[in-house]
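Exercise 7 asks you to align residues with tokens for two separate proteins.
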Amino acid sequence: MPELVLELNGRTWTLDPSRPYTLGRDPQGDIVLDDARVSWRHATVSFNGRSWVVEDHGSTNGTFAQGQRIHQLEIGPGSALHLGNATDGPRVNLSGTQAPAAQ
């Protein structure tokens, strides 16, 4: 199962495919954003057994990929999302983990 690295506001999280991650303003969430455009429980990133998926939870201002509002989308290394605004909302960048070099 591939790990996914999420980068937001200069911080990084290595996501474990065995569990979902909530993004939003809720201080009890996994990835907390202090931005009024982001909903309390804005979206979830999870691995469905085949690929990583982001799912918007009916947020007020939306989740965007390539300028388009999305509700659910397969994501992976190289993907970028904006939360709360298509152009200047908090940007989430996704990348893969580096495999250790063979010795």
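Second protein for Exercise 7:
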Amino acid sequence: MKTRIETTFDTLRQAGKKALIPYIMAGDPNPQVTVSLMHQLVEHGANIIEVGLPFSDPMADGPVIAHAAERALAAGTSTSDAIAMIAEFRKTNTTTPVLVMGYLNPVEIIGYDKFAKQCADAGVDAILMVDLPPKEAGDFPKQLTARTDNPMNQIFLLAPTTDAARRAKVIENCSGFIYYVSLKGVTGSAALDTQVVREQVAQIKRETDIPVCVGFGIRDGVSAKALGAVADGVIIGSELVKNFAGIAADDTLATEQAVAALLAKMDELKSALDTLD
């Protein structure tokens, strides 16, 4: 049984299109925004949505997303709350894949089986735990895809510094798509060399048929188009999330303006990807 993510990439491939995958932090700038924003992202071209699970020590994230996690936590958003938001989204959208991205500490506390069941019950389609290396994942990836209630994918990261042995291990354990980190550094870093990324993605694609999507450092339609030309999709986070910086949780007008700016960026990215030959 194919997951929603696998079906989405099949459909995009047949249409000659690339996936646009926006990232938002659950509960940022307040818990009331997230579900509505997810629906708006779909309306503005999102093929898959990546939802961040708030965590106090997000080691792979730069200051923009780290501060987003702080805002979400300050607003009272827990891991379970974030998953409940996805369940609410699923009540009226049963087709758009949703990926959750987070860190192992809350999962260790909840328990792997319980966490996986919570995600499956909510309609989550894939799990990315940044600090879960494939060699330590055990049977967890296979347990996700083998679920009969709601099969899910386990997403792993590859980076410019990944050696051949680890790359092979990721390819062996990953499903849905491979998340390629476009640069050495944290989310939102600026030093993006699109030519180097294109070469690295091409190398990965010679070794596997699993779709490869690129994230970290994509800021505009130009960079999205350059990487979309070789990858199967692009992931954008900090450039969207930064719109919520400095907004008070109860400032309705500022929040509405931030959402409008975020969606305008989505339109720019979607237009750029749609112009790919």
